[in-house]
Amino acid sequence: MIILKNILENRYYSYFMLFCIFCYAFFNIKYSRVGDIFLALFLIGSLPIFAIHKDIIFKNPIIIILIMILIAQVLSWINSHIYIPEIADKTPKLDRLAKLFVFFFIAYWLKANIKNTILLWLFFIFGFLFAIATNINFMSIIELVLNQQRIGFLIKNSQFDSMLAGTSLLMSLSFFYLTIKSSIFGKKSKAALLFAILLLIIFFTYIVLITQSRQVWLGLISAYIAYAISHIWINKKINFKVLIINFLSISTLLIVLGNTEIMQYRIMSEQDVVESIFIEKKDIEMSSVGIRINSWLDAKDWILKHPIIGLDSEAISEVIQQSKRFSKELKKEYGHLHNFFIETLVAYGFIGLLLIFAMYYFIILSIKDSDLSDNNKQYYLLTSISFLTYWLIINNFETFNSRIIGVSTHNIIFASFYTFHITKFFKKNSINN
After folding, report:
1. Which residues contact 163 (CB under 8 A, 6 or more apart)?
2. Domain for residue 186, yes or no?
3. Which of 11, 43, 124, 398 can pair with 25 through a Cys bridge, CB separation 3.0 to 4.6 Å?
4. Neighbouring C-beta atoms of residue 293, cutoff 10 Å
5. What is the pLDDT of residue 246?
C-alpha cells in the first residue's frame, strides 16, 4: 500500500495523468476515439485513489451521489423488465449517468492549481479551433454567411458547434478577467495577451451567431443575468453602479443582437409554432421547436406512469416510436427527446433527476468550502454559477449530457471548479486519519 501511495503521489505520475487529461480535452472534439484512449488511461491510472483513500473517499458527497446514481439506474432497469420486457436491455447501462462523474477524477489531478485549470481550458479551446480548421471549406463558409444560411463545422451538428463556441466564449471571458487581475505580466505582454484573448472572444461570439442555435443564445444571456444577480446575492448589498452597468450592458447587447437579420430570422421563424402552443392547438407543426414540444408532450404520459424510478434508457426512444404525433419518417430520424432532464425523468424518474441536481448543487457549494482566497473564492463562485446556468439552459433543448462531446465538455467545466474542494478534502481527511 505504501508503494502504491508513493506512485500515486509521485510528481511524474501526476504529470502523466495531467498529460492524459489535457490530451483528452484536446482530441475528444475532433477525434473522439483518440480522446477515449486518454480517458481510459487517466481513469485506470486513477483507480489507486480508491485503495489509498478507501477510508475517506466514500465520505465525499459526489462519490455518495455516484453510488446512489448507480443504484437508481439498476432499479430503473429492473422496473423496465417488469413493465416493458420486450424492449428492456439485458444488462443495465450504468455508464449513461455515471460518465457525468468523470469530473471527480479530473478534479483530483488538477490539484486545485489555477494554472492547471487554465491549461485544461486552453487545450479544450484549441481542440475546438483545431476541429474547426480541419473540418471546413473556407470558401463555402463565406458563401453561406453571405447568404445568411446556418453554418455547421461537421463536428456533430450546428447545435454542438454552437455549444462548443458558447463554452469557449465563457472560458475566454474568464481568461480576459484573470489576465486583467494578474500581476505576473509586464504591461506590454499583458496588453498583447489581452488583445489575443479579445480576438478569441470576438471569434467565438461570431461562431455563436452564425451557428444560429437559439438555446445557446438563451444560455449565454441567462449566464450573464445569473452572474449579475449572484454578484448582489454573494456581496449581500446592491452596488447601484455595477447594477446599472450590468443592466445597460445586457440591454445594449440584446438590442444590438436583436437587430441582426440572423437573430430576427431565427426567432421569428418559429413564431406561429410558439403561438399554437399557447392557444393549446392540438396539432403542433413539426418544425425545430414543434418536434421538441411534441416529444415532450409524449414523454409526459410515460413520466406520469412511472414517476419515481422511470423505465431505463430504452424507454427514451420508445416514447418516439409509440407516439401518435410523429410520422413514420420522423420516427426513423429521431430517437431522443431534445431535453436531457425530460429524458432523465423518463429513464430514471424523479430520483434520477434529483440526484443529478444534487451533483450540481454540491459542485457549486464546494467552492465555498475551499482554501481559495476570499477574492478568488468569490470569482470562482460567480463563474461556476454562470457556467452552470448556461449548461442547464442548453440541456433543456438538447441532450448534451448524453453525447460524447457534451459529456467531455461537462466534465472539463465542472472539474475546474470541484478541484478546489476535493484537494482540500483529501488533505484534511488524510491528516485527521
Report:
1. 213, 216, 394, 398, 400, 406, 409
2. no
3. 124
4. 19
5. 63
The count of structural domains within the chain is 1
Q: Could you give the count of Cα atoms lying within 13 Å of 55 in the half-sphere of its Cβ?
A: 7
Q: What are phi and psi of 191, to 5 degrees?
A: -60, -40
Q: Compare 247 and 148 and report the one with higher pLDDT.
A: 247
Full DSSP string of 277-325: HHTT-SS---SHHHHHHHHHHHHHHHHHHSTTT---THHHHHHHHT-SS
Query: By C-alpha distance, which of 163, 234, 221 is closest to 407?
Result: 163
pLDDT at residue number 77: 96
410 within a domain of the structure (yes/no): yes
Query: Which residue range(s) make up the domain with 398?
Result: 2-115+239-272+332-432
Residue 113 zone, left/alpha/beta (φ > 0; ψ -120 to 50; rest): beta
What is the C-alpha separation between 87 and 79, in angstroms, rounded? 12
What confidence tens digit (pLDDT) does each residue in 100-122 have? 999 999 999 999 999 999 999 99
- Grid coordinates representing 356 are 443529478
The answer to whether position 127 is within a domain reads no
C-alpha to C-alpha distance for 426 and 56, rounded to whole angstroms: 8
Is-contact 382 73, C-beta < 8 A? no
Dihedral pair phi/psi, residue 102, rounded to 5°: -60, -25
Alpha carbon distance, N-terminus to C-terminus of the chain: 15
- How much is the pLDDT for 22? 98
User: Could you say which DSSP state residue 136 is in?
Assistant: -
pLDDT at residue 140 tops 60:
no
pLDDT in tens, 285-325: 777 778 888 889 899 999 999 999 999 999 999 999 988 88
Which of 104, 76, 74 lies closest to 315, judged by CA?
76
Closest CA to 343 of 333, 351, 334, 353: 353
Query: Does a structural domain hold residue 90?
Result: yes
Between the CA atoms of 125, 129, 134 and 136, what dihedral angle is there, to the nearest 10 degrees? 130
Average pLDDT over residues 22-29: 96
